[in-house]
Amino acid sequence: MICSGFICISCSEICYGEEGFSLLCCFSPCSLHLLQLKLRALPPQRSFQVHLRIVSVILPDWEENMGSWKDQMLSSNGEAPGPASDASTLVLAANRTKRPDILARFHRYRGGWDIANKHYWTSVGFTGAAAFSLAILWFVSFGVALLVHYSCGWKIKFTRNEASWSLRICLLLLILFTSAAAIGCILLSVGQVDFHGEAMDTLNYVVNQSEFTVETLRNVTEYLSLAKTVNVAQIFLPSDVGNDIDQLNVQLNSAADTLELKTNENSSKIRIVFSKVKSALITIAAVMLVVSLLGLALSIFGHQHVIHIKNTYLVFLSSLHSYHRPKSAPMLFSAIADTCLAMGEWVENPHAETALSNILPCVDQRTTNQTLYKSKQVINDISNMVNGFVGSVANSNPPPQAGSSYYNQSGPVIPPLCYPYDAQLQERICSDGELSMEIASTVWQTYTCNVSSFGICTSVGRLTPAMYTELLTAVNVSYALEHYAPVLLNLQNCNFVRDTFRNITSSYCPPLDHYLRVVNAGLGLISVGVMLSLALWILYVNRPQREEVFAKLSSRIRRGCGSGDGVLSAGATPRHGA
């Protein structure tokens, strides 16, 4: 990078304490990062606020860059450590999408893949410019030829010797090109069915991934709400934990609603587009097949004026197909190729904000962080509540006058429940003698006693059936929240979106590309076959028609019969006096 000019910035620091200083520094744009590193090197315990005032900027492009750099500096005042979130914007498929933009006076489009940007679609439409130009040229030239043919009476004359083999070759070519157009219609029909099915499978896969994420968030919300009602011997979670759960549930529901809304909106739009493409391809295949066969039949069996009317109509219809085909096929091919490439690039930069967020957005990282943290905290709180009851009540041997703590419990003591997380909420391995949540319900059942109508144990055991039910509910909620912890971690890192796009690029994009090539081949055969058939129809119109052939043949027969009658009459005269 070539640097020139200088930037003057007034930096003042307001510290908590007696120390403080201000400075005025002038430096080149290349050394901006040095100031940033020096400010970050200050002791973190001194909370300070940096005020930056740009006095003059020589380079015009640095105003925007300085604004973002300034915002970054002002926002870096000692946040708690956590997963880094990359809020940068990544331009997807930047090199592939650098196409002329008609709306921008044919300047190159540099916004990357973005299905919500009209400039992207106009640049995609430019991919069919070459074929579109050829279609226009063919339409104009063929129209001029027809005009000359009908207005000036221009025809191609065949001599008597050339007419026979020329018409045979013309008929064979006409059948060949009509067959090519028919094969193209078949390829188009088969290809569009496979392409539409694969496209819908891809879309359904994305929607299913989104629905799974939404269901996960809602399930976590339900289990957190259920955790508020968990009690063991009328011991509940602390009230502040319940308030935190309520606030977190609001954020989780909002995140789930946002993800569901975006996915449904975009999937509906994509379904409409693919439905229109399917209808258009089916219409093209059906109409052009009828056109080709009808043209062949009229050329062989029709009269000349019928063929002329038919040619005028078919030229217009074929030209209309050739007008739209170069635009639709390359646009669809380019858009799908751009999408697959964009997904592949996003997989390499999963935390960047991109246009793919409109298809399948990542869940808000702050919400997932809080959910994961609160879920682990609730699990430990429930384990603490269960162990507190087991240690102070169930495993104790109080006298009968102890009140509610006495229910004639007896027998071996109950092992404590394992804490899945340590004090720092990191995973820990259960020690010997602790019950994991997977086997806790089975083990606790062996410590259950029979009770009388007063709730007093009448057999050996340390848990009444009611207590066992309460403990079972508590451990089930904890186990469910622990089960969703890896899923929440997957959402936190946006891995579910990355896995979705990686699977699409590896499993869905190759079949889409293959079926789209089949569709493109079918459209190409239809265009070439029908256009060449039109030219042969014009030539075939000028052949001697049946009426002319029959007239010549009948005149020859009449002449032959007339001469034969004269000979016969002369030879059949009877001789007198024989």
UniProtKB/TrEMBL annotation:
InterPro entries in UniProt: DDB_G0292058-like
Alphabetized UniProt keyword annotations: Membrane, Transmembrane, Transmembrane helix
UniProt entry tagged with the keyword Repressor: no
One CC-aspect GO term: membrane
Segments passing through the bilayer: 120-145, 165-190, 279-301, 515-540
Stored PANTHER family: TRANSMEMBRANE PROTEIN, TRANSMEMBRANE PROTEIN DDB_G0292058
Protein's recorded name: Uncharacterized protein
Organism: Salvia splendens (Scarlet sage)
Lineage: Eukaryota, Viridiplantae, Streptophyta, Embryophyta, Tracheophyta
